[in-house]
Design a protein that fits this description.
This protein has a single domain (about 50-430), classed as Ammonium transporter fold, CATH 1.10.3430. The protein is built from 16 helices and 2 strands. It has helices spanning about 5-25, 50-75, 85-115, 120-140, 150-170, 180-200, 215-235, 240-270, 275-280, 285-290, 300-330, 335-360, 360-365, 370, 380-410, 445-455, and strands at about 25-30, 120. Strands 1-2 form a two-stranded parallel sheet. Helix 2 (about 50-75) packs antiparallel against helix 7 (about 215-235), helix 5 (about 150-170) packs antiparallel against helix 6 and helix 6 packs parallel to helix 15. About 50% of the residues are buried. One of its GO terms (molecular function) is ammonium channel activity.
């Protein structure tokens, strides 16, 4: 069977399975179910009712939705011969993950509560988008090096590990991670990097098509701007009460301080003391990741800004020094997810440990239990310990899950690209794109060459 036909059949089978499972197990949440006459006041008849909570959730959902489809999608369009696939496979993976993650969370709920169905509402839509973020981060690590069938496999398996780890962290350990820096960003980054290591091929390195040209970097910067604008919504979407406004403020301040320091460090570390678009596209966002776990905590405005400053240093240094070191151990990171999501995600987890350890009623007053629900029966030290445990377990799940998934993805049945011409290339999958014999020099490959030249 031709590769394209195999992909089409697999997609139809997958959607058919989702359709059956949704028909059997999923029903509307209470707020979306029909009401009887006694449940609706005369003034509301014919108009439908939307609670304040629904309105807040949907507003947050809209912002996060834009981040997933426009932000992540366009951020990955920097590859000069892989733009169609970058933004469109982003859409494809999201369509799979939203459905599969909803089912996986529902299955966990049914097992835990001994029920035969589960509900789907606006909050479920938001959680589906959060799951998409983790898988799209992993997609960034293997961008241009996998077939659509391999991406199907990665999405299906990663969601399983993601949901189980999330359940352990939130429900069992009762750790706090309101912005998903541990359970989404760090998990997605190190899952993807592990898969990339397992799939490693000599043609991944110094491939002349791995990079950008002027206009593709401009498209990528559009993704950066959308992510930058809506990141406060991402980190605050699940926060409640006064923690919601704190999450907005802390993320906002971390982002602006991170951006300023990113520009400064890009010049300091850059060749000829000039700015690098790689830094600006990615490291300017690191503050949002680094503050995520503690976004709704009482870290203070200055603390949020300090987190942003350190995040910029970690991220830009990662691109300048650690990116090359990963290459030496055969971990090829196409989008630099270690520097934007991985290390800042770990930083956020460690920050959450510290913030939980110093949390007290004097500092939080009645919102202590709102931010840390487990504090009803735990001390601050015990909560900090569980925060650390959640981070360690998340990294273990990411690496172990990535190893298992990577080896399955290598199977020939999933059509792994094998030649240099098949990688970072749109023409294999799109009728509008023709093979190109000569490819111009690329910015990202030039950037890596500059690193090697400078370090010699």
């Amino acid at each position: 069977m031709q590769h394209g036909m195999k992909f089409g059949v697999a997609a139809l089978i997958l959607q058919s399975i989702f359709l059956v499972l949704f028909g059997v197990f999923v029903k509307y949440a209470k707020e979306s179910s029909p009401t009887s006459k006694g449940d609706v006041s005369p003034s509301d008849k014919g108009r439908g009712t939307v609670t304040a909570n629904d309105a807040i959730f949907y507003a947050m959902f809209q912002d996060v939705h834009v981040m997933i489809f426009v932000g992540f999608g366009f951020l990955m369009t920097f590859l000069n011969r892989y733009g169609f696939s970058s933004v469109s496979f982003n859409l494809l993976l999201s369509a799979i993950v939203i459905q599969w993650a909803t089912l996986m969370r529902g299955i966990v709920h049914m097992i835990e509560h001994h029920e035969s169905t589960f509900t789907f509402g606006i909050s479920s839509m938001l959680n589906g988008d959060f799951s998409c973020a983790a898988i799209l981060i992993s997609f960034g690590a293997v961008l241009g090096k996998t077939s659509p069938l391999q991406l199907f496999v990665m999405a299906i398996l990663e969601v399983i590990f993601l949901v189980v780890n999330e359940h352990l962290g939130i429900e069992i350990f009762r750790a706090v991670d309101v912005g998903g820096s541990m359970f989404v960003h760090a998990f997605g980054a190190y899952f993807g990097l592990t898969v990339s290591r397992i799939l490693y091929h000599k043609h991944h390195v110094d491939n002349k098509k791995e990079g950008s040209v002027y206009h593709s970097d401009l498209f990528s910067m559009i993704g950066t701007l959308f992510l930058w604008m809506f990141w406060p919504s991402f980190n605050s979407a699940l926060a409640i009460a006064d923690g919601h406004s704190r999450a907005l403020i802390n993320t906002y301040l971390a982002m602006v301080s991170c951006t300023l320091v990113t520009f400064a460090l890009s010049v300091i570390f850059g060749k000829d003391k000039k700015l690098s678009m790689v830094h600006i596209q990615n490291s300017s966002l690191a503050g949002g990741v680094a503050v995520g776990t503690m976004a709704d905590m009482m870290i203070g405005p200055w603390g949020a800004m300090l987190v942003g400053v350190v995040a910029a240093l970690v991220s830009v240094s990662g691109f300048r020094f650690i990116h090359e070191l990963l290459g030496k151990i055969n971990i090829h990171d196409t989008c630099g997810v270690n520097n934007l999501h991985g290390m800042p995600g770990i930083m956020a987890g460690i920050g959450g440990v510290v913030a939980a350890g110093v949390a007290s009623y004097t500092l939080y007053k009645d919102s202590l239990i709102t931010v840390f629900p487990a504090r009803l029966e735990r001390s601050s030290g015990v909560q900090a310990g569980y925060q650390l445990l959640a981070l360690v377990v998340t990294l273990c799940f990411a690496v172990i899950g990535g190893v298992i998934t990577g080896f399955i993805m290598k199977l020939k049945i999933f059509d792994p690209p094998s030649s240099a011409d098949d990688m970072f290339e749109d023409h294999l999958y799109w009728v509008e794109i023709e093979p190109e014999g000569n490819h111009p020099p690329t910015m990202f490959s030039t950037f890596k060459a500059d690193i090697r030249e400078t370090s010699q």
